[in-house]
Amino acid sequence: MPRLSILDRYILREFLFGSLAAVVVLLVIFTGSTFADVVNKVATGRLPGGVMFTVLGLNLVNTLQALLPMGMFLGMLLALGRMYRDSEMHVLSASGFGPKGLLKPATIFGVGSGVVVALVALWLGPLAARASNAEIEQANRSVIAAGLEAGRFTSLAGRGGILFANTVSPDGTRLGKLFVESESVDKDGVVNINVITADHGDLFHEGQEDNRFVALHDGHRYDIRLGQNNWRLVQFQRNDIALSPPADDSGESDPESLRTTASLVGDRDPAARAELQWRIAIPFGPLVLAMLALPLARQAPRSSPVGRILIAVLAYLIIMNLMTLARTFIASGKLAAPIGMWWVLLPVFIGAAWVFARQYATRKPRSTAETGT
What is the pLDDT of residue 210? Predict the structure, then answer.
């Protein structure tokens, strides 16, 4: 393999520094949005507060498979735009390097970025997702995860009402001398007050791991309707209450995303095949975006970094949305798995290569005088 020239190393360094800066900025943005989602789950009782930051970090690792290609694309476009703006490309062209010389460092950088993204998509991302799920599952097996403490009144998140436990076992699974109060309004507008006392209680789960319940044993339940004389007293041996509302899974990640890549291979289920195709296609994104950055850098406004960023973000969103659409079609059986996301990536790569070749085959690089510098 031929050694890299000084110019190749210089351009690769510009790509790397620009991409690192873009990734840091994107990571800050992603951290803000992910943190807001995690805090919302903690506030509604669907996520234990004790594992909030652990889950946040693991979720950020999983988002790197989408964040890294975008950061790489932005970094390349900004680096190339600066080189055109500062007339470095014209100096390189005059020295015999020429714009076509960008193909080698761009390809190396795209392939290198693809290897990193492949590591995240095929192994590290799913591993982080499983670790996050395991942390939540383990924490939810304790009533301490719901914020319950011995001798303190605790609000039932998302449901209204309060719960008091005289004692809580060290592992957070058993409670002693319980008092529970909640209120509701029926269709007639009458306020109903429900009071429960119990000798002891035990934590258990049903369905999703974040659906926590407490089984109350040996107690009494008082049902009172305000403003009316009728009320009811019930003695029970066991009465179950929920510590948090059932989780809404509409916005949760696909369970297939928790599986290892090896377990997806050979699985005929459409959802599993869609997940596998996604993990395989994502690492090719950096190479496609690297080729796309070459013609875009020449056409993008040289005096406006904001313009280049907007173009890069728009192009990236279009490609990713089309890939997401293909993933949905595969999962629903409307698109053959072998076609996968290649109907998006291949045309973009071929189109960018054709524009690049046509651009530099028919037009010479602008001189310094033409650029106004």
Answer: 54
How many whole angstroms separate alpha carbon 75 and alpha carbon 46?
A: 38
**231: part of which helix (H) or strand (E)?**
strand 231-242
Q: Is 159 left (phi over 0), alpha (psi -120 to 50) or beta?
A: alpha
Share of the chain above pLDDT 70, in %: 82
Average pLDDT, the chain: 80
**Predicted local confidence at residue 139, as pLDDT:** 66
DSSP 300: S
**What whole-number distance in Å separates Cα of residue 227 and Cα of residue 12?**
78
How many Å separate Cα 250 from the centre of its chain?
A: 15
Residue 286's pLDDT band (boundaries 50, 70, 90)?
Answer: very high
Q: Which of 294, 139, 312, 290 is nearest to 210 (CA)?
A: 139
Q: Is pLDDT at 370 greater than 60 in this prediction?
A: no
Q: Can you tell me whether residue 225 is helix, strand or coil? A: strand
Residue 11 tokens, joined: 């351009």
Q: What is the residue whose two structure tokens read 């500062």?
A: 86
**Cα dist. 70→248, 289, 317, 344 in Å?**
30, 8, 9, 16
pLDDT tens for residues 289-323? 999 888 887 765 455 667 777 888 888 899 999 99
CB 330 within 8 A of CB 270: yes
Structure tokens that stand for 189 in this block: 């507008």
Look at residue 259 and tell me whether its pLDDT is greater than 90: no
Is 149:72 a contact under the CB 8 Å cutoff?
Answer: no
Q: How many beta carbons lie within 10 A of that of residue 344, not counting itself?
A: 22
Q: What strands lie across the sheet with 231-242, from one edge to the other?
A: 153-155, 162-168, 174-185, 191-205, 212-225, 231-242
- Asked whether the beta carbons of 299 and 313 are under 8 A apart, the reply is no
